[in-house]
Amino acid sequence: MSPYSRRAFLAAAGIGLLAGCAGGDPADRADRADRAASTTPSAPLPSVTPPAGAARPLERSAPVALRIPAIGVDTPVVRLGLQADGSVEVPAITADDRAGWYRYSPTPGQTGPSVLLGHVTVGKYGDGVFRRLDRLRPGDGITARLENGTTAEFAVTAVRTVGKKEFPTTDVYGNVARPELRLITCGGPLTGDEYRDNVIVFAVLTPAGER
Question: How many angstroms separate the CA atoms of 26 and 91, rounded?
Answer without folding.
Answer: 12
